[in-house]
Amino acid sequence: MTTTHDAAGLARLVDHTLLKPEATVADVQTLVEEAARLGVYSICISPSFLPVDTSAAPGLHVATVCGFPSGKHHSDVKAAEAARSVRDGADEVDMVIDVGAAREGRYDAVEADIAAVRAATPGDVVLKVIIESAALTDDQIVAVCQAAERAGADFVKTSTGFHPAGGATVHAVALMAQTVGGRLGVKASGGIRTAADAVTMVDAGATRLGLSGTAAVLAGLEADAGY
């Protein structure tokens, strides 16, 4: 096994995620404690929970979402939300594009939307662009990834996990990875519930994973390895 396919290596690719509308402050603190125990890269939480106390997990990164989950927000609203999140301590921002604009082929509008959020955030803040890949054709996925790169994004991300069309697929991750060619990261998120799912996404080209059931995924990987 490679280091990315053992539990500790895979954990360093994980955004340990809690975006349920009913989540509480206590739930977020439990998330931080789990993050420390599991050794993940970051937590991903709703912006209303920022700032968050991560003293229980030194070195833990904090990601949040923007324009979530529909993406149907004015670009200046998304930009303001992202800027506020950074002031409140976010290291990374996962923004949702206007998926309808992509489906209509209005890629200039998609690019401008992403660029507005990029301009509102410092360069050292990681910007991930959620494209909702399950709702797009292959050609649309490619065009949106290209727009994200032109706009200065750091990652393209498959899914919010809330869209009825579904979450990450191996096909979409591989296509996204091929399109960005290592110049951007690729985050697979949505519906990744087992160790096999996670490993398959990494093998397809994912460089980050969004998981809500992180403990179960890592335990499954340890079991598969015979630990």
Automatic annotation (TrEMBL):
Keywords of this entry: Cytoplasm, Lyase, Schiff base
Reactions accelerated catalytically: 2-deoxy-D-ribose 5-phosphate = D-glyceraldehyde 3-phosphate + acetaldehyde
Cellular localisation: Cytoplasm
Pathway participation: Carbohydrate degradation; 2-deoxy-D-ribose 1-phosphate degradation; D-glyceraldehyde 3-phosphate and acetaldehyde from 2-deoxy-alpha-D-ribose 1-phosphate: step 2/2
GO CC, one annotated term: cytoplasm
SMART domains, alphabetized: DeoC
Domain of life from the UniProt record: Bacteria
Active site residues of this protein: D94, K157, K187
Top EC class, one word: lyase
Principal cellular location given in the protein's record: cytoplasm
GO MF annotations, alphabetized: deoxyribose-phosphate aldolase activity
Keyword hit for Hydrolase: no
GO BP, sorted A to Z: 2-deoxyribose 1-phosphate catabolic process; carbohydrate catabolic process; deoxyribonucleotide catabolic process
EC number: 4.1.2.4
Matching HAMAP family: DeoC_type1 (MF_00114)
Family: Belongs to the DeoC/FbaB aldolase family. DeoC type 1 subfamily.
Stated role: Catalyzes a reversible aldol reaction between acetaldehyde and D-glyceraldehyde 3-phosphate to generate 2-deoxy-D-ribose 5-phosphate.
Protein name: Deoxyribose-phosphate aldolase
Naturally occurring in which organism (per UniProt): Cellulomonas algicola
Name of the gene: deoC
